[in-house]
Amino acid sequence: MTTIKGTPKVISASAKEVFDFLADFRNFNELLPEQVTNWRTSGDECSFTIKGMADITLKITKAEPNKLITYSATGKPPFPFSLDFPLEVVSEKETQTSAIFNGELNMMLEMLAKTPLQNFCNIVTEKLQKHFAK
Predict the structure, then answer these.
(1) pTM of the shown model
(2) Which domains does the chain carry?
(3) DSSP string, the chain
């Protein structure tokens, strides 16, 4: 199992606000990098294409209110993976989180994908931070 952690960021919102935002896939598109196309969502599932790479479908598979939300790849992903967002209360109006990728990558794929996946995790968390900085 390969684990890649994004840089933790402090979000200017309560854990409930961050959890509610992440639990609604209509919001997730706002956090994705510009290489993402063909965005679609329906309830607790979304799908999109990463240009030049793969079609991805994600489903919320774990939701601990105000503590953790996990998106897992479904359908036919290039490899099994999940994306976790652990939520840590900093104060009443601040929450720390990071995007954490967990995937079953072979050594070759891990070498090729590690930097892009690290960048992806960082972009998602940075965009989440900017969303609540408004």
Answers:
(1) 0.91
(2) 2-132 (3.30.530.20)
(3) -EEEEPPPEEESS-HHHHHHHHH-HHHHGGGS-TTEEEEEEETTEEEEEETTTEEEEEEEEEEETTTEEEEEE-SS-SS-EEEEEE-EEEETTEEEE--EEEE---HHHHHHHHHHHHHHHHHHHHHHHHHHT-
